[in-house]
Design brief:
The complex is a heterodimer of chains A (266) and B (272). By secondary structure, chain A is of the alpha/beta class. Chain A is 18% helix and 25% strand. With 272 residues, chain B is of the alpha/beta class. The chains are: A alpha/beta (266), B alpha/beta (272).
């Protein structure tokens, strides 16, 4: 059902059962899949493909221009998968053009005031708590949780099953399975609760804890820690994700900051 | 009065005494209240609200759900007639809020070529100069002055009455409660100086020689434990050779809340 006051561009393609609430505005080149609902006063600006069964709440702003000073217009896209929830006032921007698109997978939850900038790639089952803010070109892997008010620097990667604490400022990559906290964010422990909830065996969790200590608690150089981790993979294939995270990093891995080391020494 | 070349969506609501200039575009369900002037070529997207008493210049892009010139969030405000002035070529992104002054006849002002990203907030009586960047959620309290080419990082918070100097950089997730000197990068809660904003200075064409002078000034101010007034005396001598340092002297002299310095417990050996 499309409310009479909703304004929908003639080039938008909405599946038959999509519902759009009062005063929402849907711009050109927008596709919305079956079962998706759009609340009132929402904006889907343009060049956006949205899959099935998503819920878009009031005042959400999807597919608007990137906030990149280099962006000077031109075709740019946002692709959204299925069964995502976008709460009030969240903003998801399009890519910055060409092959750079903003990509959202399936079953993600974007709470109020969250922001995903241009060219980010968000996997599946990711939770963004209120005000969580991603800059451009960030990759967030499956089952990561980004806490309330957390801010992430551009070009960071956030590993699978990692947890970024509330009000953290993450400036480098978050390793898979690890909890980060603080400004700048540093690792504080393995995300045990998250791993248990997602059915990791106690043996895998023990291996991950061991890998965590090698990476963050022994004063090892990153490349030496990586060598140790490679030896652990046959016994625990889950460790491979951590090695991949080291290898793909552009900004380096968030480790103990100098000031946090001092805190722990006191 | 709406200029004949303006394109106004039929669902937008515009007060009869608003003045809409040539080529202005107003999107669906946007609301423009009384005593608002909008200059040539400015675009106002769907659902934006310009409440009242607001003069907006040319070629600005005001995105959806932006709220301009609403009442100040000041408990002393009792409905005084006050203003918001916005210059030219600004980009103001979704859900940003810029409030009017809290004083009778007072003005909150935003200059030219500023980039205000999503959810940023500029409170009553702020003076924002030109070419300033507010990243997402950057929030400044009342009476804050932000000088040219300053950058506020994502979710940075600035206490009321602070001054943010020209070419300074306030890091993401910082909480600034004193002034940032020009050219300086600050970070943390509370924000403290971590370096000279070298990337910003290079991008804006400062010579290597000037940058070296600024770095010396930075070390004198923040890394030698001289105390602010002794450091100021040193800077005064250096300013004879490098006139860019005069901005730092002026900033020290006009400060009402003091200058954000290295705080206790912060590692003194953090690199310059």
């Amino acid at each position: 059902m499309i409310h009479a006051t909703a304004i929908i561009d003639p080039s938008a393609k909405l599946a038959a059962d999509v519902s759009v609430g009062p005063y929402s505005v849907i711009g050109p080149e927008v596709e919305i899949g079956a079962g998706t609902t759009v609340g009132s006063n929402a904006l889907i600006a343009k060049n956006t493909k949205i899959g099935k069964g998503n819920i878009i709440y009031s005042y959400a702003s999807l597919g608007n221009d990137s906030q990149d000073l280099k962006y000077k217009g031109g075709e740019a896209w946002l692709h959204i998968g299925d069964h995502n929830t976008f709460r009030e006032f969240c903003t998801i921007n399009r890519g910055s053009g060409g092959s750079d698109i903003t990509l959202i997978g399936d079953h993600n939850l974007f709470m109020s005031y969250t922001h995903v900038a241009h060219d980010c790639r968000v996997g599946n089952y990711v939770v963004f708590s209120n005000l969580a803010t991603l800059a451009g070109h960030i990759q967030v892997d499956d089952y990561a949780i980004i806490g309330g008010g957390a801010v992430v620097h551009q070009f960071c990667n956030i590993g699978a099953h990692s947890f970024i604490g509330g009000a953290a400022g993450l400036g480098q990559d978050a390793m898979p399975y690890v909890i980060f906290h603080g400004v700048p964010a540093y690792p504080i422990s393995v995300n045990l609760v998250g791993l248990r909830r997602h059915g990791f065996s106690e043996s895998a969790i023990e291996h991950i804890r061991h890998a965590y200590r090698i990476l963050f608690r022994r004063g090892n150089k990153l490349e030496d820690a990586r060598e140790e981790l490679i030896k652990m993979v046959p016994a625990c294939p889950e460790i491979q994700l951590m090695i991949d995270a080291i290898d793909r990093s552009q900004r380096g891995i968030a480790r103990r900051s100098r000031s946090s080391k001092e805190e722990s020494a006191q | 009065m709406i200029h004949s070349t303006a394109v106004i969506d039929e669902s937008a609501k515009i007060s009869p005494d608003a003045v809409i200039g040539p080529g202005v575009v107003v999107g669906a369900y946007a609301i423009i209240g009384p005593k608002v002037e909008i200059g040539e070529g400015t675009e106002i997207a769907a659902h934006a609200v310009i409440k009242k008493n607001c003069i907006i210049g040319k070629h600005n892009k005001i995105h959806s759900f932006v709220s301009l010139a609403d009442d100040p969030q000041d408990i002393h405000y009792k409905g005084q007639e006050s203003w918001l002035h916005i210059g030219d070529h600004n980009i103001i992104r979704e859900f940003s809020t810029i409030h009017r002054s809290a004083k009778e006849g007072g003005i909150t002002s935003v200059g030219d070529h500023n980039f205000i990203m999503c959810y940023a907030h500029i409170a009553h009586d702020c003076k924002i100069a030109n070419h300033v960047v507010f990243a997402n959620n950057a929030t400044v309290g009342g009476h804050v002055n932000v000088s040219d080419h300053a950058t506020l990082g994502g979710s940075a918070l600035v206490h009321q009455n602070c001054n943010v100097g020209a070419y300074s950089f306030v890091g993401g997730a910082s909480a600034l409660n004193q002034d940032v000197l020009p050219y300086v990068m600050v970070h943390g809660v509370p924000a403290h100086p971590i370096a000279v904003n070298i990337v910003g200075l290079r991008r804006h064409g400062f010579s290597k020689e000037v940058i070296d002078h600024i770095r010396s000034a930075y070390r004198i101010l923040f890394r030698r434990g001289y105390g602010l007034m002794n450091a100021r005396a040193e800077l005064e001598k250096m300013a004879l050779e490098c006139k860019e340092l005069e901005l730092m002297l002026e900033a020290i002299d006009k400060s009402t809340r003091g200058i954000a310095m290295t705080t206790l417990g912060v590692d003194e050996s953090v690199e310059d």
